[in-house]
Amino acid sequence: MDTKQYVNKKQLENKIDRNKTILKETFNKSQDYISREISLGNGKYKILINFFDGLADSKYINDFIIETILNHEKHILLNFIENGPEGVLNVFFNTAISSSSISKTKSLSEIYLNLIEGNTVIIFDGINEAFIVPTPGWKDRGVGETTVNNVIRGPRESFTETLRTNTALIRRRIKDESLCCEQIRIGNMTKTIVALMYLDGEVDENVLSLLKERLNKIDIKGILETGNIEEFITEEMYTPFPTAFNSERPDTVAANILEGKVAIVVDGTPFVLTVPALFSEFFTSADDYYNKWDISSAVRLLRYLAFFIALLGPSVYIALTTFHQEMIPTQLLMSLAAQREGVPFPAFVEALIMEATFEVIREAGLRMPKPLGQAISIVGALVIGQSAVEAGFVSAAMVIVVAITALSSIVFPAYNMAIPVRMLRFLMMSLAASFGLFGIAVGLFTLLIHLTSIRSFGVNYMIPYAPNSKYLLRDTLIRAPYKSFNKEIQNSNIKFKPIVLNTPRDSNDNEKN
Amino acid sequence: MIMRKTKLIIILCTILLLSGCYNRRELNDLAIAVGMAIDYKDGKYSVTVQVVDPNSASARKPASGSTPVIIYNTKADSIFEAVRKMTTISPRKIYFSHVRIIVIGEELARKGIGESLEMVTRDPEFRSDFHVVISKEIDAKKVLSVLTPLENYSAQKLFDSLAVSEKAWAPTNAIEFDALISDMLTYGKSPVITGVVAKGDVDDGSEMKNIEKTNPITKLKFSGLGVIKGDKLVGWLDEVESKGYNYIIGEVQSTVGPIECPDKGKVIIEVNNVKSNIKGKFVNGKPKIKVELNYEVNVAEVLCKNLNLTNPKHIEILEKNTEERNIEILKTSVKKSKKLGADIYGFGVALYRDNPEEWHKIEKKWAESGFKEVEVEYKSECKVRRTGTTSESYLKDIKE
User: Fold this and answer.
1) Residue among A313, A275, A339 at smallest CA distance from A411
2) Same structural domain, A25 and A174
3) Do A314 and A441 belong together in one domain?
4) Most B CBs within 10 Å: which of A321, A323, A330, A390, as the mutation test of the B interface?
5) Any B CB within 8 A of A321 CB
6) Domains contained in chain A, number
7) Of A277, A303, A326, which residue sits at a domain end?
8) How many Cβ contacts (< 8 angstroms) between chains A and B?
9) Which of A51, A225, B40, B300 could pair with A56 as two cysteines, CB 3.0-4.6 Å apart?
10) Which domains occur in chain B, in start order?
11) Which of B26, B97, B100 sits opposite A346 (nearest CB)?
12) Domain limits at A51?
């Protein structure tokens, strides 16, 4: 099962009593460890059944393991007398246990791992091998509805905390034998299973090998969420921008796999990573592809607009009102000037106060216990909205600017793109406060240079803007009609082809980069 | 490496503070000027600035009692000195970017506007898209002190009504500042500046009671175009002459005028879609100008009894009368400007475009004699388009 070998090379021994002691000693402080010894023919032959309560399905163990053993008592004893312990093993392996997959192992560490995963380990007297019967029976949440990446039209399913369920959700969408699911364990203590899913032949081999190399290098106690490995596997440490994409939607992940990316499914979290991630990817939502192209394109443009509003809203306001008053229409300038009469702070401080207040309210809204929700929203609305203006702390126009900025930063389909925007907004504000529009221009240029320098698994983050790919641009600022994709460049060496583009099997070799 | 980067970032952050926001101005530190008036009195420039009080001029409810604008006036040897002197009376620095209009006193205009506008072209705060007008017979300062209804401050009022009247009435010309300067510098074209007059007692006009009445005591009104020769005002075009001027340079968007009926009475027409074309030509070294006018006419008011608008012949007569009348208007205008000796239509420019070499020969004499002697040929073409919702006027059917 796993590619990574952990710890001791100790193995089972022949004597069942000895084996029993070893296991008991290992788990002697864990009372959820259950070890049931079945004695056949008045102690002539012993079988030891081990499992963890709560993790293994005890009903299954009762019905299909213990009961089978008791029913086959005579048969087992007969075989024991005739063929020795090996005979018993054959009976079990071939007939006795009604389970789809049984495996054998000698390694103690493997036995421990299997026990903890909810499997049942059967140990026979006189044999230094154990049977492992998969009996996982812990409680999981079941496939629920999406809570973060919501769409109007599209599948409602979202990933769960169970790895197997998640890989199954992906496999149900891509019914092709070339879909691979490689698994490794990461985390010295958690031994979390991490599954890499990709299409053999379509995947970018460089990305895959880079990814594997980086995953193997991770040396950490535990992996509890994809975020734990995201930082290890991405190459850009000093960027606020996310260079791995995550989603809780099986359809989004499946689409990314179809484009030739690799999905990283981590046991224990409903968020699946896909790499490499492109800047434009964070502006797409699943239902862009399910709705008609015209409205999808319009919404895409709206999101890019929101990106700039969220990034530059307060800074442009500061720059215009403190440096470039000549750019404001006269009537508006009068109105703004009237509102500013009596406001004691410079526009920059005013904006900082409002932005900080908003961030506090946002964080409070996120963390507060649910019953407090109303209290927070009332306080937030009153403090931010009315009282601050009436008390003369801030001008009404500033409240509008901050409100629009805040709304715009929630528009992104991918929440982690809102984070760099939130942080950079403050940088832009201070640039605007010291240099006006010139500062904003410098800031934007720096940002652009930074963005084009970012790589995600060796792939340029700003593809297809820079380096430019006219073909892929059809699925960025706008989402072009599907029919317009089909004609050209079937066999070109473009990475991450849109899923509407069918790639014939036999031309696979031409397409690899 | 990380240490070096952190240090670099810290240093970069401190650079932000170094600028000290050196020319940062908060909105409530500004006195926003919307109008400027320049007079010349006793050898000194008298500069008046109309500053808006945002509290009473903004869209929100104006603070009661106070006037929406404040007037600051100073006198000095030069415009810039006068402007800077204003800080001694104004609590805030005057901000000129939103100036909508500059009013020049007639006395100064006759003396020459060149010197007084140099500072305006040089100062980075001034835009170049505001309008320039000349105050006729009164001080420019008084024009700015009149309070006007509807629009809160007179500079905006002048700006707006100049734009509106240029569109719908024609005898005004909303010349923008940069166009004025470039006209002054172009050989073969002289600028014109619209004149503004105040009707009523100007001193009463500066009080709030002026806008508390339905019929304000003092009103500002545009009247005629001032002809500038060089940088000096040399005379005024009356209403008809101004209209003729606007026709020739193709600035008429829409105007109205009376036309003779076939027998007696008159028809009021609305002129639309005016296209004009000035062609210059040298015939045997002699300059010749051809002015072509194309336009459409709508019948707006029929004040004669025997005009049948369903009859094509009557329409033809109407068209012919219109054409003749408009040629008369053009002739009157050209005659007046010839008398003043200022080529306000840009005939010289048209000649230059036709034949630059010939033009350079007569360029020097153009302003003095050339323009006065030039032969002008007129062509006027009109089409009657719409005659309104009724065909024959009901006037003839009114019972005795």
Assistant:
1) A313
2) no
3) yes
4) A330
5) yes
6) 3
7) A277
8) 77
9) A51
10) 27-237 (no CATH), 239-400 (3.30.300.210)
11) B26
12) 16-133
The b/e string for B242-276 (b: 16+ C-beta within 10 A; e otherwise) is bbbbbbbbebbebbebebbbeeebbbebbbbebeb
A4-8, A254-258, A379-383, B161-165, range with the lowest pLDDT: A4-8
**Could B54 and A335 be called an inter-chain contact, meaning their C-beta atoms sit closer than 8 Å?**
yes
pLDDT digits (tens, 9 = 90+) for A330-370: 888 888 888 888 888 888 988 998 888 888 888 888 888 88
Has residue A411 been placed in a domain? yes
Q: What is the identity of the amino acid at A318? A: I
Tell me which chain B residue has its CA closest to the CA of residue A344: B28
> Is A292 strand, coil or helix?
coil
- Lowest mean pLDDT segment, chosen from A10-24, A134-148, B55-69: B55-69
Q: How far apart are CA A150 and CA A242, in angstroms?
A: 20
A335–B5: do the CB atoms touch at under 8 Å? no
Mark which of A415, A431, A460 sits at the end of a domain. Answer: A460
In a domain, A468, yes or no: no
d(CA A12, CA B288): 118
A69 and A114 inside one domain: yes
Whole-angstrom CA distances from B127 to B25, B120, B124, B175, B300 are: 18, 9, 8, 14, 40
Contact between B296 and B271 under an 8 Å Cβ cutoff? The reply is yes
- Put simply, the answer to whether B26 touches A347 (Cβ < 8 Å) is yes
Q: Does residue B2 surpass a pLDDT of 80?
A: no
Chain A CB contacts of B17 under 8 Å are 434
Q: Do A431 and B19 touch (CB under 8 A)?
A: no
Q: What percentage of chain A exceeds 90 in pLDDT?
A: 26
What is the spatial distance between Cα B253 and Cα B167, in angstroms, rounded to a whole number? 5
Which residues in chain B have their CB less than 8 angstroms from residue A340's CB?
26-28
Mark whether A455 and A323 lie in a shared domain: yes
pLDDT tens digits for A478-507?
888 877 766 555 555 556 666 555 554 444
- Closest CA–CA distance from residue B132 to any residue of chain A (Å): 18
CB-CB: which of A322, A434, A435 is closest to B25? A322
Specify if A90 maps to a domain: yes
Distance to chain B for A264, nearest Cα, Å:
30
